[in-house]
Input
Amino acid sequence: MNSFIEELKWRGLFADMMPGTDEQLNKEVTTAYIGFDPTADSLHIGSLIQIKILAHFQQHGHKPIALVGGATGMIGDPSGKSAERNLLDEATLLHYVECLQNQLSRFLNFDGNEPNKAELVNNYDWMKNISFLDFAKNVGKNITVNYMMAKDSVKKRFSGESGADGMSFTEFTYQLIQGYDFLHLYQNNNVKLQMGGSDQWGNITTGTELIRRKAQGEAFALTVPLITKADGSKFGKSESGENYWLDKKKTSAYKFYQFWLNATDADAERFIKFYTFLSKEEIESLVEEHATAPHERKLQKKLAEEVTVWVHGREEYEKALKASEILFGRSTAEDLVSLDEEIFLEVFDGVPQKELAKADVLEVSIIDLLSEKSGFLKSKSEAQREMKGNAISVNKQKVNDTFTAQESDLIDGKFLLLQKGKKSYFIVKVLS
Output
């Protein structure tokens, strides 16, 4: 069996393929593509598997193409959807396309003169000049309505499953347009394989059928499973339904790191195969180590490190790690002071804050700061009582009643973290 397919199988990332795919990959360096629809100005972790499949494909000597759907994004893929997507205006769509192209260029090797260097394409480039009549005549006549209606993504919408209420003609044409992408890339870029999630099987095989009928050629399909958590629930969103984005402006590296760190043992064992490039031997060794001391969460820590470094780089990972250790008391005051505002506020999300003038914070009695100035504690007597009980910390460091805050104690030059006991926090924001 081809080494790329073997890799996918042991990682649990193989769903299905057309007959002959294995032989094609063994025969020659093969060009394959995966499409990404520009529905936002960033991809989210739901796209990571597709990106990783392309990266594995390239590592195994084949040529990956990432297609950004500037044209298909105007319609919206009905696969797995129960309602039609809101259509975007052209300016917004083109902005999203540019953002996704920049993002994808971080994950694949587009440089050098190697025959398998990656390429980025945008289907709007070849669709924009095709008239509706030309498309109907040259593409539509090659695929029957019966063939299109037989696809699961269409049948579910027409049958009313999942609360669906039919399908517009616009969405119905999606599989033809995606099929035409495959035909165009087959004829112009020597693409012989399209890959995607298992929900894309119908769209991909429409492309292979179009290539067979229109170009008398042979092309192939390979799909990967849709990722869920071990308990069957949806993967990739927070409890409130928010996406975890690959752009740190939308989801910070700290929050991204925490997502992977908080995986259950069962999920961590699956995800470390799915989302890292660690070898089978390395993963098996980690799983073994984790089983002997699950409380150390070695699997989760390694998973969070590998994925955060891959997406955000080593420096952002180190910041996220430092921030995470601050929460659990395994850090110094210097670590806390060195945090930037964004990460500090995310670490202590939900902690009450009060803005104070610099004169009311610096070189002020800690008793006054805790009580009258900040209102963190109700009274001076409570502040003195907690101080005697050694319960007060500033920036995670225990202090006594002689302490006064200095400029050098301010986190990112503007915050002071007050703490009573282990879990009661209060943030003072110093106005400049």
